[in-house]
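User: Here's a chain of 118 residues. Predict its fold as tokens.
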Amino acid sequence: VHMVESGGGSVQDGGSLRLSCAADGFNDRRYCMGWFRQAPGKEREAIATIDSDGLTKYTDSVKGRFTVSQDNAKNLIYLQMNSLRPEDSATYYCAAGIVASLEGMDLWGKGTLVTISS
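Assistant: Prediction complete.
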């Protein structure tokens, strides 16, 4: 099973990026999926999760700017990021697990780097 992120890159303050994650070899509808990020010197944090019923949750700092969605037929999860800020710069990871939380994730991708310049 592989979780493979793509779509990271460098944009200016206020720009947009769309991250994608392919869950290769994985197809368990009980699982929740989510996006997490880790900036240098900081702990990894959950930023957006989507549970098996399609319920989404966001951390406060990205509410109204980021949108998580999934395509169950293609085993893909997306993160649309708008109005990006320098403080959003981090390595972004997708993950899957039984519980929609950082601690509940079992399967992790290797991450994709997002850099926002001011």
